Amino acid sequence: MDAGEARIITEPMPDQGLAEEAGGYAYERANGTIERARSAEEAIRLCPVLGKMALESPEKAQLLLDLAATGSAKMAETTQKDAQPKAEQQTMKPIAEATSTEKPAEPSATEPLRQEQAAPITKLIEEREAGWVQATVPTESAGIHRTSQEKIRHIQEEPKAQSLPEPTETIKTADKPVVAEAKVETSDIPSAVATSEPAKQSHEITPEVQPITLPTETTSHEPDTHTEILELDLPELASEAEPQVTAVSNETQETQETQETQIHTNEAVETITESEVTATYEEITELLAAVSASEADEHVTAIETTASQDFETLVEVLARDNEPLALKFIQENAAEQPPEQSLAQLANYLSEQSKLADEPALAEALQQIERALPDCRGTEVTGEKPHITPEMTAALLQLMQTLGYQNPRESLVQLITEQGIDFLLEALRHIGQVYSDDTWREFLSASPNPASDDHDDAHQRLGRRLFGFIARANQELVSKPV
Amino acid sequence: MAEQLEGQPVEEHEGEKYLRLLGLENKADEPITLKDGTTIETRNFLDVCGQYARPMLVGLEAMESDDPRREDTMNALRGMISQYIEPGQAE
Fold first, then answer.
1. How far apart are CA B40 and CA A478, in angstroms?
2. Cβ of A470 and B49 within 8 Å?
3. CA distance B58 to chain A (A)
4. Dmax of chain B from CA atoms?
């Protein structure tokens, strides 16, 4: 039941270089891979569980979060009650056996107090098991990091109700079984992004919260452009005087390199300039014109594509020989393989269900391509040949960058030069088809209209988005034996 | 969660219970075809999304009947469920 598990790591992990290279933020996927993030918001946004929840209607997301937290607490309470008889039995056993993970460790005389203390811990563990992200702003204090990290490890390693931390300082959830809060602030939104009215609502801000500005990256499924801050409200972590986040992972050097690639990619996406798009468009236009001229003149053979197979064949060959690669592997290998191979791998990647929730840049690029593609098709009626538009050029540059090509212009020109415009458009049609088949597509199409004031519709939209999100995050479970 | 439920008297199918809670009990028998080709009955929707939906549903169940947020919450959850269990939607 961990296919949808995701957790945010906002604690610096100096021993693994995370603090220096990613500002201490990372997002651990269910399969254990680490996605880097430049801010807590980005890390949260990348999460398939909470990443999109508060974008449309923060108060509704808050409501659902509260509801989920209440439900989790209730479930944890039920679990606790179930564990009590076992605990009583365990107290009769030798100490060595008493370290079983299924029980509270103390006799029933102290049970009420311990239950109170255990509830947040159990709740935390349940939340982790359930995959809810628990994230806050990291602290810069190494000491606090170390202490909290040890505590987190301790919590993870110890039985649920064993070695309970003493509640200290303000414990916000002492009388309220809420473990996570969603909050929206617009005060720190960059002016270029903040197009909506400042949010009037303030959702239970604790003093520890330090607002963090979202990256300026915009995607079509982030209509409100609000800054999201999801705050963990867990007693044992609140007692650290700094908000803390939950997870510790076994990050490897390989995953770090992968994350570096993704960071570079994400940064590169933002660096595409209009002039670069224009220059690339002109270069491609000239190239296509030259190709067209060469086709018209049988004696001119200076420009020839080297395409030896169509795109679908390439995709089928790759699919037959290899399992679909994760995007990060495509990005890692981008420098060592031709663009058409990366596109084919992307097609296979997209054929896997629901993976774009964590790849907003890729989703945006694909959407742009889909919008621009009809204008690029030639028509036999008018004699217009397949071509590239500036919009398509911009989208392709972004796609190339998302795929890990450090010089997207060069890669794009190389692709068209070697494979031809027909191959490229075929590849884009194929990718668009696969992309459209994905439930992600459906999810995007269900994106709400932020301008609507219809209260019930907002609920429905939020529900659709959230549930689509949930469904995609969990569909892998169906194919696996539970 | 499965372990948690073991040993407890099963009064009502969990999925059916929550569908009924949301007024969607008439959907219980409808098949859902997942993208991987698996077909399940709607009543078993928690097998697919229970990891995240269950806490919300449990929370809703625990909510006071006169809680002013209840109706909104039910609408939100109903929308979620309806979106998912509509034939073809999960494919």
1. 9
2. yes
3. 5
4. 41
Q: Do B55 and A64 touch (CB under 8 A)?
A: no
Using an 8 Å CB-CB cutoff, list chain B residues near A134.
none
| CA angle at A21 for the pair A259 and A254, rounded to the nearest 5° | 35
Top-confidence residue, A53 or A372:
A372
Question: Measured on CA atoms in the order A108, A114, A116, A119, is the torsion positive or negative?
Answer: negative
Contacting residues of B for A78, CB less than 8 Å apart? 4
With left for phi above 0 and alpha for psi between -120 and 50, is residue A23 left, alpha or beta?
left
Q: A44 CA to chain B: closest CA distance, Å?
A: 16
Report if residue B91 sits inside a domain: no
* Cβ within 8 Å, pair B62-A473: no
CA distances from A366 to A223, A363, A391, A402, B90 (A): 17, 5, 12, 10, 22
Q: Identify all chain A residues contacting B59, using CB atoms and an 8 Å cutoff.
A: 66-72, 74
What DSSP assignment string belongs to A4-20?
A: T--EEE-S--GGGTHHH
The answer to whether residue B43 is domain-embedded is yes
- Residue A359: the pLDDT is 76
Which among A74, A79, A471 has CB closest to B84?
A: A471
Handedness of CA A329, A42, A73, B63 (dihedral sign): negative
Kindly report, residue by residue over A178-190, the tens digit of the pLDDT. 333 333 333 333 3
The partner residues of A229 in beta bridges, in order of sequence, read: A183
Q: Which domain holds residue B63?
A: 13-85
Say if the Cβ atoms of A474 and B62 lie within 8 Å: no
Number of domain units in chain B = 1
- Secondary structure class of A232 (helix, strand, coil): strand
Tens digits of residue pLDDT in B10-48: 578 888 898 888 888 888 888 877 666 778 888 887 877
Cross-chain residue pair B52–A132, CB shorter than 8 Å: yes
- Residues with Cβ within 8 Å of A114's Cβ and at least 6 positions away in sequence, in order, are A104, A106, A161, A164
The first and second tokens of residue A35, run together, are 């996605």
Top residue of B18, B56, B67 to mutate, by most chain A CBs within 10 Å, is: B56
Is residue B1 in a domain? Answer: no
Tell me the chain A residues in contact with residue B40 when contact means C-beta distances shorter than 8 Å: 478
Whether residue B2 is contained in a domain is answered as no
Residue of A nearest to B68 (CA): A63
Strand order of the β-sheet with A26-28 is: A7-9, A26-28, A34-36
Task: Kindly determine whether residue B72 and residue A459, on different chains, have CB atoms separated by under 8 Å.
Answer: yes
pLDDT tens-place string over residues A116-160: 433 443 444 344 444 443 333 333 333 333 333 444 344 444 444
